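The methods section describes the discrete structure representation at length, but only in general terms. The central task, working out the structure tokens from the amino acid sequence alone, is never made concrete. Nothing conveys this as quickly as seeing an actual entry. For illustration, here is how one protein appears when written out as sequence plus structure tokens:
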Amino acid sequence: MRVTAWYSNFAKTAARFCGKPPVFVFAFLIIVVWVVTGPIFQYSDTWQLVINTGTTIVTFLMVFLIQNTQNRDTEALHIKLDELIRVTKGAHNTLMDLEEHEEETLESVRQRYEALAAAARVQVDNGLKDTGTPEA
């Protein structure tokens, strides 16, 4: 549990740091230096290997940091949406854990909401409002 908390904090801090403009500028400058040194090293295999290895390592590690951050953000978003569903009168509480269901269930619910949207568009086309709850 302690390692998980450490990694989570590290990933959050690293993702915030790496997403800042100065870090992008630094990475861009590394590429510029690499390009400028091309003629000095006669565009050798080693010269190419340096940038390929560096970018591969950074990309490999960033994938895990980004995925961790994305997972945490998605989980927080689901919790917030679940709370909004829970406190909204007339809302369908069965939608609160929808992300945990199988693809067939998701497709069925999606089709139901597409039908509600189509019906609302017909109402708007007929000069009616599309607000409120359809079940009411």
Observations:
- Residues 101-136 form one domain.
- Residues 90 and 136 are 8 Å apart (CA to CA).
- The mean pLDDT is 91.
- The chain has two domains: 2-91, 101-136.
